[in-house]
Structure formats: C-alpha cells, structure tokens
Amino acid sequence: xxxxxxxxRGANRQxxxxxxxxxxxxxxxxxxxxxALMRWNHPDKGILPPGAFLHVAEASGMMEMLDWQVxxxxxxxxxxxxxxxxxxxxxxxxxxxxxxxxxxxFVQLINKCGIQPRQVRIxxxxxxxxxxxxxxxxxxxxxxxxxxxxxxxxxxxxxxxLSYLHRFNMHTLKIDRxxxxxxxxxxxxxSTDVVRAIMALSTSQRMExxxxxxxxxxxxDALIALGCELGQGYFFARPQSLEALIAGR
Length: 249
Ligand code: G
Ligand code: G
Ligand code: MN
Ligand code: NA
Hints:
Elements: H1 4-12, E1 16-25, E2 31-42, E3 46-48, H2 54-59, H3 63-81, E4 87-91, H4 102-113, E5 120-125, H5 126-131, H6 133-146, E6 149-155, H7 162-167, E7 172-175, H8 177-180, H9 190-205, E8 208-211, H10 217-225, E9 230-231, H11 242-247
This protein binds guanosine-5'-monophosphate (G) (2 copies), manganese (II) ion and sodium ion.
One guanosine-5'-monophosphate (G) is lined by residues 21, 37, 91, 153-154, 177, 212-215, 232-234, 239.
C-alpha cells in the first residue's frame, strides 16, 4: 500500500497528473469538454487510480496540494488541447472550500495559462455542500462572478435537498452512473423514472445535465429518448493520458 512518504516523494517529483475523459453530445459524439481525473504516474507501479492513494492523501492533509498539482497541469494544456468553446471539469474535494483565497488562486492560474474562466468548471459532490454552506455559498458566488461554473457530481446518490441547487446556483447536474447502468433493461423502471425526474428538474431550473458512466449504445439511446443531451462513459471514451488524447485526434 502507498504510504504518506511515498506520496510526498511523488508530489515533489510532479508525478500526479490528469487523465482526460471526453464529455460528448450524445447525438453525435462531438466533444464539448473533458473531465480531468487524477492519476499517479508511479515510477515502479505505473499509472495508479485515485482509489489506490486518495484515502492516504486525505488522511495526511495532502489532498489540496495534489489537487492543485493536477489542476495546474490540466489548465496548462487547455490552450493546446481545447477549442475556445470547450472546457475542462476539475474534481474538488470538500476541504478546498475552507480556503478563503480559492477564487484568487483560480484567477491567477487562469491568467498565467492564458485561458478563459469559462474553460474551467468545478465538480463537487453533495457531501461538500453539507459541510459549511454559508462559506461555500460565498465561494461559489465569487467563482460564478469570475465565470467559473459549478457542476454537482454523482447527483442522486447524496443527501442534498433540492433547495441547494437553487441556493448554490449550480450550472450542471451530473447523473450518477448507478442510474445509468440499468437504464436499457426494460424490466428495471426505477432508474428511468429517476432520470426522467432529474431531466424535469433541470429544465425547470435551467441547468445542464451530463449522464455519467454510459457503457452501451442502448444506454445512450435511452438517455436521448429522455431528453438528455450530454454524457460521458466508456461507450464513448475511457479516461486517457494527454499523449493518448493528442495521438487519437
Ligand atoms: O478516475 P476514477 O474513476 O478512478 O476516479 C475515482 C474517484 O476519484 C472519483 O470519485 C473522482 O471524483 C475522484 N477524483 C478523480 N480525480 C480527482 C481529482 O483530481 N481530485 C479529487 N479531489 N478527486 C478526484
Ligand atoms: O466520482 P466521479 O464521477 O468524479 O468519478 C468518475 C469515475 O468514473 C472515474 O473514476 C472514471 O474512471 C469512471 N468512469 C468513467 N466512465 C465510466 C464508465 O463508463 N463506466 C464505469 N464503470 N466507470 C466510468
Ligand atoms: Mn467527477
Ligand atoms: Na460523478
């Protein structure tokens, strides 16, 4: 298992990198943006997913440092990788919102990388919203003013009341993949009902919706029939390295 000192050494050597999974229009597969997903490019063990080290990073207080290492890397490639209207989603752990200067840090990085604020979006899970809603509301407002939009990740699995969506000015709902995986099976109707409810909610609140974890054509078709326009998943593309992404274009 990875230890704290392994993580520190890896961080010093800039071994924490983003992989990129396309977010696409379901109808034609055209890419609207990418989700940046952290990987550890370990010198002996190869590419490690977050499950192998996130708990150690959280427990040792290194999460924020690792996140910024990945964010900076992802933001630096935006001018080379993205069209002006494409964006990159960054995954945020709750503890970032304890930092009062998070918006300034983004502005600095955005200016340094020469990108537009709307080319960066932030994904948070519902758990992050429960922690300190006053402080988080203020941070979200400032980010929104800068032009950075917020997406609610793993939507449907947490505990947030619907009032959060309004209060926090969410731009996007990401439907958790647990609702997508049994969509095409006709005998399982509850997931279809959940997705239909999320679509109705998003329409009334004017929020964008992204379906996660789409693995089959049938799931894609079912989502299109329910009015969902955007998604990501292995059916379209796996998370891939920057090099693989460039090579595949
Ligand atoms: O890519 P993968 O499926 O292995 O990601 C597993 C989990 O790790 C996901 O829940 C995702 O939200 C989280 N994760 C991935 N990249 C990052 C990151 O850069 N920062 C944080 N805080 N979490 C991440
Ligand atoms: O929690 P979050 O939604 O950020 O996590 C995204 C995770 O989902 C990443 O670990 C990514 O590798 C994984 N993922 C992306 N597409 C698919 C998919 O089609 N199927 C499955 N099972 N996992 C996926
Ligand atoms: Mn995510
Ligand atoms: Na998610």
